[in-house]
Structures are given as structure tokens and as C-alpha cells.
Write a structure and sequence with these properties.
membrane; transmembrane helix; AtpZ/AtpI family protein; transmembrane
């Protein structure tokens, strides 16, 4: 049974990650290596799985192009999945605001 006082720790003593992506901790102490490996795994895994599906459909239907379409679909799907898990977006450092988007308003005084 789980101790409510230790709800922030896993049974092995490691912190529980609040993110859904594998290999990325909530305090970002792992750096970009684990996130990069997760992105790589999603993309390569998608290419392999969808290429095999395309190869099987090529074999059934007697075509030769579906395996290529499957590889492209797998790469796009892997990138999309890693983006939705927050692995490819830029992260904010603690206490910093992101850069403002849109045109600058302080340069209007020099306009002619």
C-alpha cells in the first residue's frame, strides 16, 4: 500500500514525473539529452512501424509505393507526437518571461 506522505516519490525512490513523455523529468534536470532521445525514438519508431504497414499493403495489393508513403507518414506522425508531448517546444527558464511576439511599440517615436 502506498504511503500518502511519500506521494511525490515512486517506489524506487525516483521523483514521479508529471509529464506524459518518457524520459523527461518535471524539474528538467535531465537536460535535453533524454528529450532528444525520446524525439528520435518517436520518429524512428513511426518510420519503422508505418513502413512495415506499407510493406504489408504493397505485398497484398502488388504495388511498390505505399512503403514510401508509410515511411513519410511515420516520420510526420512521430514528430507530431513528440511535439504534442512538449518535447520539441522551447522551454522557459525559471523566472524568465518568453520573448514578446509582434511588432515593437517603442520604435514609433523615430518614425517620419
Amino acid at each position: 500500500m502506498r504511503d500518502p506522505k511519500k506521494s511525490g516519490k515512486a517506489s524506487a525512490g525516483k521523483p514521479v514525473s508529471g509529464r506524459s513523455a518518457p524520459g523527461v523529468s518535471s524539474d528538467n534536470s535531465d537536460g535535453g539529452y533524454n528529450a532528444g532521445m525520446a524525439v528520435f525514438s518517436y520518429i524512428i519508431g513511426g518510420i519503422i512501424v508505418w513502413s512495415l504497414i506499407g510493406w504489408g499493403l504493397d505485398y497484398l495489393w502488388g504495388t511498390r509505393w505505399i512503403v514510401l508513403a508509410g515511411a513519410l507518414l511515420g516520420a510526420v506522425g512521430g514528430f507530431y507526437l513528440s511535439h504534442m508531448h512538449g518535447l520539441t517546444s522551447s522551454r522557459k527558464n525559471a523566472g524568465e518571461r518568453p520573448a514578446a511576439s509582434g511588432p515593437s511599440t517603442d520604435g514609433d517615436t523615430n518614425a517620419k
